[in-house]
Amino acid sequence: MAVRKGGGSVIEAAVIGITGVLLALQIKHTKPEYAVYLSVATGVFLLLLAAQRLEVVVESVRMIQNSISIQSSYIQVLLKIIGITYISEFAADICRDAGYSAIASQIGIFAKLSILAVSMPIVTALLDTIHSFLGG
């Protein structure tokens, strides 16, 4: 097996996910609430595997930042946006699986507004740059 850095392989994640789904399907007919709990637990476990992969991504982004001239605040905003996106999708998917699509939609709206709020400093800096180019 190849040496890998930062967590499990995609095959491991797929096996964990499929196993969790098959177990939840078996339990769903007798104890539906336990099937939801099993689904959430499987999702959290996969989230932890993904978090290990995220360490590799953050390390790579920092190497890129050191090799070219990028302000660290821009990198921090990028990482926050990635985190907001991943966590909100995870939570929304759990809500959808449990049958609460309206709540899932509200999580999605909140995430989009959060991303907009987090990215405002970059938008402002971009507008200032455009304004200075136009001779303002």
Q: Would you write up a description of this structure?
A:
With 136 residues, this protein is mostly helical. It folds into 2 domains: 1-69; 71-136. The chain is 84% helix and 0% strand. It is built from 4 helices and no strands. The protein has helices at residues 10-28, 32-67, 72-97, 101-133. α1 packs antiparallel against α2, α2 (32-67) runs antiparallel to α3 (72-97) and α3 (72-97) packs antiparallel against α4 (101-133). The radius of gyration is 20 Å and the shape is elongated. It starts with 9 loop residues before the first helix and ends with a helix. The relative contact order is 0.08. The mean pLDDT is 86.
User: What is the approximate shape?
Assistant: elongated
Structural class: mainly alpha
Average pLDDT, to the nearest integer? 86
Instruction: Summarize the main sheet.
Output: none
- The domain tally reads 2
- Helix coverage percent of residues? over 70%
First-last Cα distance:
59 Å
Instruction: Tell me the quaternary state.
Output: single chain
Q: Total number of helical segments?
A: 4
How many β-strand stretches? 0
Rounded Rg:
20 Å
- The parts where pLDDT drops under 50 for at least 5 residues are none
Q: How much beta, percentage-wise?
A: under 5%
SSE ordering:
HHHH
Secondary structure: elements and pairs:
Layout: H1 10-28, H2 32-67, H3 72-97, H4 101-133
Brief summary of the model shown:
The chain is mainly alpha-helical and 136 residues long. It is 84% helix and 0% strand.
Note the main attributes of this structure.
0% strand; 136 residues
